[in-house]
């Protein structure tokens, strides 16, 4: 399906921003693990933090497809920048779809401006994939909830200022996920950003450990106003997160492929460019085919989401295939570069370090396979899933 005029204009804007502002400084900031304050400010001015927030709350109201295009282009320049947007817009999406009207009016306009950026606090030292095992507790006390617990790997934990805290309001619920609620919180006494966690890649953007000790947030900040709905809210939000991570993977894979194509035509061995050796051509052909297939899967998932459908299956497939593609293409690009690909003189080594995050984040690929299989088995008992899933 061809892109609309608005989508083409957006892609052109992001490409221009990436080329002029991001590419010249990404490697330096990433290697120094330095937060890109100036780039984040520019992203605010460009309206990226309101991309998917409805226009009535000051955002652009873009659908998932347009959002995926934005993320792909941005990740092609520097993947870390897409992380600042991801949990922010995921939390905005949860507030839009699951919040009370008062919560929408209070949070979405400031979030659309990007002045206040959001963090999503699910993972804990003893609970990641198994979300229902979270131990962070929230106990009602008068007009507040009192929160105690510890969260791991929280993106936007330091420079963000709105926290969607996945916690238990009923520790004894059976099954345990029925005891989960989401509380929206802001910085205040009892919320402590304990440390920035050092990482292999995805550097420059903070990944933090956050502790809550008798931290109080008003009861009016209970997402949707009803206890026990948090698991459903978070799973719905993760669909958009998976589209983000899949689109990031396509962006990084495209950057690696382009670098490999360029280098293969410049570098000569045995009297000719390495691009003329059949072994290299085979690699380039496989890489490009995988990247294109990954892009199409992302677009398919995003378009279905824009039709208002639940897309666990499609977003799972897109996230699984795009992230595995990214890992493979980044590795192959490094091989094509030979020794120089292993050095910090070129961004190929960054693509190689960034790629593994996409197989872990927003649900590991082991879990994506389970989500895909579960959906196939539930909805497509005839086995003709290609037809029945409308692919
Ligand atoms: C850089 C970075 C940023 C992150 N940002 C955030 C954030 O902003 N907010 C947030 O809440 N979290 C964040 N995370 C956490 C991330 O979502 C989790 O790391 C991820 O969900 C996996 O959880 P875990 O690390 O606890 O692994 P575990 O759940 O302990 O899994 C360990 C291994 O076991 C496998 N496994 C687990 N259960 C099963 C099963 N049933 N069947 C088969 N295999 C299984 C997993 O696939 C994995 O291979 C971030 C992580 C990183 C690295």
Protein traits:
391 residues; alpha+beta; Butyryl-Coa Dehydrogenase, subunit A, domain 1; Butyryl-CoA Dehydrogenase, subunit A, domain 2; Butyryl-CoA Dehydrogenase, subunit A, domain 3; 3 domains; 4-stranded antiparallel sheet; 3-stranded mixed sheet; 11 helices; 53% helix; binds flavin-adenine dinucleotide
Your description of this structure?
This protein has 391 residues and is α+β, with helices and mostly antiparallel strands. The chain has 3 domains: 5-113, Orthogonal Bundle (Butyryl-Coa Dehydrogenase, subunit A, domain 1); 118-227, Butyryl-CoA Dehydrogenase, subunit A, domain 2 (Beta Barrel), CATH 2.40.110; 232-388, Butyryl-CoA Dehydrogenase, subunit A, domain 3 (Up-down Bundle). Helices cover 53% and strands 15% of the residues. It has a 4-stranded antiparallel β-sheet with strand order 2-3-7-6, covered by helices on one side. The protein has a 3-stranded mixed β-sheet with strand order 1-4-5, with helices on one face. The chain is globular, with a radius of gyration of 21 Å. The structure holds flavin-adenine dinucleotide. The site of flavin-adenine dinucleotide has 20 residues, from β1, β3, α9 and α10.
Instruction: Predict the CATH topology of the largest domain.
Output: Butyryl-CoA Dehydrogenase, subunit A, domain 3
The CATH architecture of the largest domain can be given as: Up-down Bundle
Query: Main β-sheet, in a few words?
Result: 4 strands, antiparallel
What general outline do the C-alpha atoms trace? Answer: globular
- How large, in whole angstroms, is the Cα Rg? 21 Å
Number of strands: 9
Structural class: alpha+beta
* Fourth-level CATH superfamily of the largest domain: Butyryl-CoA Dehydrogenase, subunit A, domain 3
- Small molecules bound in the structure, each named once: flavin-adenine dinucleotide
| Broad CATH class of the largest domain | Mainly Alpha
Mean pLDDT: 95
Secondary-structure element pattern, one letter each: HHHHHEEEEEEEHEEHHHHH
Q: Can you tell me the residue ranges where pLDDT is under 50 for at least 5 consecutive residues?
A: none
User: Helix content range of the residues, please?
Assistant: 40-55%
For the record, the count of structural domains works out to 3
How many DSSP H or I helices?
A: 11
Question: How many angstroms separate the termini?
Answer: 14 Å
Strand content: 5-15%
Walk across the major sheet and give the strand order: 2-3-7-6
